[in-house]
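Trying the structure run again after the queue cleared.
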Amino acid sequence: MHWTEPGAWPVADGIHRVPLPLPMDGLRAVNVYVIETERGLTLIDGGWAIEESRALLKRSLGELGFKLSDIRDFLVTHAHRDHYTQAAVIAHEVGARVSLGLGDKHTLDVLQRTDDEAGRLVELLRSAGAHEIVAQWRAVTGEESSTDRAMWGYPDTWLEGDHVIEVGSRVLNAVHTPGHTQGHFVFADRSDGLLFAGDHVLPTITPSIGFELVPVEQPLGDFMSSLVKVRALPDLRLLPAHGPVFMSSHERVDQLLEHHEARLRLCADALAGGPATSYAVAGQLPWTRHERPMATFDAFNQGLASMETKAHLELLVARGRATRELTEDGVVFSLTID
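Done. Tokens:
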């Protein structure tokens, strides 16, 4: 059975995984986790606010004997559309509470102020030297560039720092894991040996890094430090936002850390040929497990690849292995010669 198969799939006593559809080709579904308590339901993440997702969530809760109005709380791992927007909409309708990491407030601030989300991201593409795909990228993302502020309202509670959250009789460790976004949180249920990992630790893919409306200095450095932080927790069963349940959080964290160290080596090798923008370096690297060239990607995914490569190059700068210069072409990186 594929992990995207609709239903309410048990992962522990009183906890179910509900995959909800996404309107995109790359990621087909997002896992929402339903936790039963004596006062109602707590959901980890909410899905994308589209009718197909709402209908399936309603049907899946019905299989468990619940209604949307039984939802009391949403613990949202981060403020991306496929995790946050449906939580915000449904919570407003049924009187549930939404909690989100404080580090994502900057993103919500931007979305509350502007109707041109895509325009903000285009500036990031230009900084990566991806001028060739800007027009294509805007065409691809144009339908989503207008912000529906009803889907991006502020949460009821901002999560800040590592702390404990009581969910009925359960105790969850809320662990701040910046990197994929600055406000990302994972939730560890040590008693049942579970890690609600959001997009921080995914079993078959790596989350995008460096593609936020409000850029930060070292997104990859933050992400890798957060992986080390999660590695220090007990080895837990991984409950990811995308993909099947994975048996060992330690095993997957180790794989992700090695993956990014290998990518850093490839980026350094690419700079050995001379100064280059992130877009140019990304064009020299293999992508996905099938090692595809970036040129085979559509404009949107070329943009993601360019920004992720920029995050790797910025970390090389922080480690003293490269230098950076802001030019008319964007940020140009050069290998440091020892």
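The mean pLDDT is 93. Worth checking whether this holds up in the mutant runs.
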